Amino acid sequence: MASLNKVFLIGNLTKDPEIRYTPSGKAVGDLRMAINRKFKTADGQDRDETCFVAVVVWGRQAETCGEYLHKGSPVMVEGRLRYEEWEKDGKKNNRLRVVAERVQFMGGPKSGGSRDTHGSEPAKKGEDAGGPEEVVADSGPVDEDNLPF
Q: What angle do CA 1, 133, 21 make, to 5 degrees?
């Protein structure tokens, strides 16, 4: 039986990225996103709906997110869903979150910064991201001395 686990999200960060390191030194970042949807109800009223999503990003891409993104930054995330279960203090917990394979920076630089963050960095796909590394091309001119990674 065929299966597919692929997610594309475009939204804004609800807080600054939280970056930490595993004991082996690998960076891991937590991003919190808000994705807004506008629609009309059956009776014609305009409605807004917001979906809050937790995203985990690994490796150099996590470090780049921590350096160049902040609360409110618009981003596109390509990744996969992962269901996690654990027990803490005798209580069972679970969550569904997105494991980012690629994070595309969609806004301008952080305030006070001078670098262009419209590019993206492919995820380092190892034990937690899964799969070979990909290369992403941009249609515009690239100044390699001004890349954020």
A: 105
Task: Quick: pLDDT tens for 22-68.
Answer: 999 999 999 999 999 999 999 999 999 999 999 999 999 999 999 99
Q: Which residue has the higher pLDDT, 89 or 133?
A: 89
CATH architecture, range 7-127: Beta Barrel (2.40)
**pTM of the prediction?**
0.69
Phi, psi of 145 (to 5 degrees): -75, -10
Contact by Cβ (8 Å): 146, 113: no
